[in-house]
Amino acid sequence: MPPTRVLIVDDEVLVRSGLGLIVGTAPDLEVVGGCSGGRAEQLARELAPRVVLLDVRMPDLDGISVLRRLRALPDPPAVAMLTTFDTDEHIGTALRAGAAGFLLKDTAPEQLVHAVRVLAAGGSVLSPTVARTVISGYVEGGGPDTAAAGLTGRLTGRELDVLALLGEGLSNAEIADRLFLGTGTVKDHISAILAKLGAANRVQAAVIAHRAGLVRDRQDGE
Q: What are the chain's domains?
């Protein structure tokens, strides 16, 4: 199979170069270009990347605006937002705009490569050491959200178990291992969860899990 095409969008040349070197070491990944926000849509049209790593904060055109333009393309790439902050105020907006995940810029090289592969496969980046920190910071404070709790009320008991572990940042295989299920069964549960919650991806579902208090409740009960 041809390598997965990756576009890196960041206003800092050194950051683009560093990320490109890391991603480019994987034989199944190919960095096809790098640019700042203003050129992202044009390059995405020309180069047809499968995955875009997109900085949230850029001076010429901010990451949220770029994300919306990329998601409006006829064949939109999977987009993961890059941030230097583990509690970025743009997270909620990015989720609603269709971001498939969040990565801190100091993500370990092996985790970055793995994240790109997950995105290319149609998944969302939700690692315990990166996305979980971001999501936890985003929903921190106050008690459970009643609207989120209402959404999760549509789920079966097993689906609630899966959603709670998804909110902790576990992969399908890790959830399967924890609940003694097959990975195919977990995948089916997650598809049903997304449909019932009206969530576009795992990241949005994880936020709902945190807001509903599912993750906190499970952790407090351990």
A: 4-137 (3.40.50.2300), 142-221 (1.10.10.10)
